[in-house]
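Lab notebook, page 48
Experiment: co-folding of the full assembly
Goal: obtain a model of how the components sit together before planning crosslinking
Operator: M.T.
Materials (sequences as entered):
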Amino acid sequence: MSDMPVSNRVRKVVEENKEVKTIFLEESMPGAIPGQFVMVWLPGTDEKPLALSCLNGEAAITVQRKGKFTDGIFRLKKGSYIGVRGPYGNGFDADACTKPCIIAGGVGIAPLAPLAEKLAKKKPVVIMGASNEGKFIFRERMEKVGKVEYATDDGSCGRKCFASDMLEGVVEKEGIDVVYGCGPELMLKRVFEICKKKRVGCQLSLERYMHCGFGVCGSCAVDGYRVCVDGPVFSSKQLEKMTEFGKFARLKYGKKVSLNEYYRWRE
Amino acid sequence: MRNPTVLASGFLGVNVEMLKRVVEEGAGAVTFKSIGPRVKSGHRNPTVLAYEWGMINAVGLPSSGYKDMEGELARMKELKAPVFVSIYGASVEEFCDVAEAVAGYKPAVIELNVSCPNTKAEGMVFGCSEKLTAEVVSAVKNVTGKVPVMPKLTPQALNIAGVAKACEEAGADAIAAINTVGPGMLINIEARKPVLDYKRGGISGPAIRPIAVRCVYEIYEAVDLPILGMGGVTEGRDAVEMMQAGASAVGIGSGVYYRGIEVFNRVCEEMKVWMSENGYKNVKELVGAAHE
Ligand SMILES: Cc1cc2nc3c(=O)[nH]c(=O)nc-3n(C[C@H](O)[C@H](O)[C@H](O)COP(=O)(O)OP(=O)(O)OC[C@H]3O[C@@H](n4cnc5c(N)ncnc54)[C@H](O)[C@@H]3O)c2cc1C
Ligand SMILES: Cc1cc2nc3c(=O)[nH]c(=O)nc-3n(C[C@H](O)[C@H](O)[C@H](O)COP(=O)(O)O)c2cc1C
Ligand code: FES
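Observation: model returned without errors.
Model output:
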């Protein structure tokens, strides 16, 4: 067994919009499934978890520019070396559904896009939310796969509401039996509550600060679950048991804080 | 303890819920991740990696400080197994501050991390010196009342048995050994950079088992205290070996990586099978057996 960053060359960089880039890797990760992530190392900068956003014969990561680490990712060019280890985590269970709905907030579409493609035969309904039209990514990819509903904060595309506000209607109208989601945790909490009320299952991908990525250090703990190996995808049954979901997260040094404070801290 | 396996400090022990889970997975006792005097952010990633023969880490003792941990410590009675609390400090005074606060929650044992190789100020400075380690132990004993104190020793000490002996004389109730070996370094040759951001890191896992067994063997000959032996235990046979070297209980950390969080039940099952095949009835018969 070995879990060291393996040098991987960047094959192609796609600018999705001003804030989001997709980096295609030379290594195609044949065994990986949608919802899994890799630990990406930028020597001298940091190492962080990133979802695999493309898995059809080529592997990619999609990052939103936020802080130091993602700035570093933004500077990568074709041929640059990065260190990659993984894939890690459980991934989505694509067999659990007959009529799926996929709901994403912002860059949360990253792990869901390859899932939507895998589920294409089941005609998933995709709900994407963003602050305005310019922020959406993967529109073409998703429109090829199923019906796409848009929600924006300013009404510049689709309906003027949060993505989660559209979920209940979609679940009723389309006969959805499983909802797959990723995005800001407060949105996911809403999604979870709606699914509970409507008695449909959900699988939601959570996000926590990570050191090891393979289940030994505990930094990604949500109650007794490790987001890196027991997740990042959790089922309704597991989410139901969590007291910290939608409420608390841990900072890098282990302090438990409210989600708001957690988002403020993240550099 | 219902069995001799103990979750080693620094693995998973960030909150009560996670420790509960480790108890459900079979651990005989569990250890909270080392708690320090104040907020300490630890090192930048990469911090925890595994190479072919072991793990290498430079987490750097991140801690939210003992005051912040009081909520978790207050709940440790919910756990259905003895709870060890590992603490560290940069001076004798800091060790005492943390120890006194922690002792108020009556853990089964306070483990003194005088042996972490991953920080400049704390830890190994103490652990390499018989005198300094003994000073920490006797000062801490003065503020912890009836709560047993167990220093955790570093294999980097020139004479680990001598350090153990000094601890015994200073009033230690048990000895834990060993912390990680090293520090070591691994370089990514394409990036031409050490892979750990902190460059150096402690080695654990199968690579260090022979060193751990030797240390426990020597400590057993030097002192009359119970020993918590650890370093590279991943299977029942390794645990039997550690006990034959002189350990009364066996710490498992990196084993969580090699065999999953289920490692505790698996090691216990494997020990049972080996013991029944070899005519042992009680684990106590194993302790120090290699010395006879
Ligand atoms: C399992 C897992 C998968 C991840 N996948 C991605 C990914 O594919 N792309 C990516 O850009 N980041 C992803 N992240 C987050 C990533 O590790 C970094 O935190 C992030 O890239 C920003 O790094 P930063 O230090 O530059 O800024 P930070 O300050 O850490 O940026 C944090 C902001 O990004 C948003 N965000 C972070 N992760 C996600 C996510 N998974 N879904 C939706 N919103 C998110 C949060 O809402 C937050 O506002 C993932 C994290 C985990 C635990
Ligand atoms: C990621 C990691 C973190 C650790 N953190 C601590 C710690 O906080 N305090 C401590 O006393 N030892 C710490 N250690 C050392 C272990 O508790 C243990 O002594 C060592 O790893 C040897 O046992 P093992 O081979 O079973 O892992 C850590 C080890 C690792 C790999
Ligand atoms: S990141 Fe270390 S346990 Fe999840």
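Interpretation: The CA atoms of residues 109 and 148 of chain B lie 5 Å apart.
Next step: discuss with group before ordering constructs.
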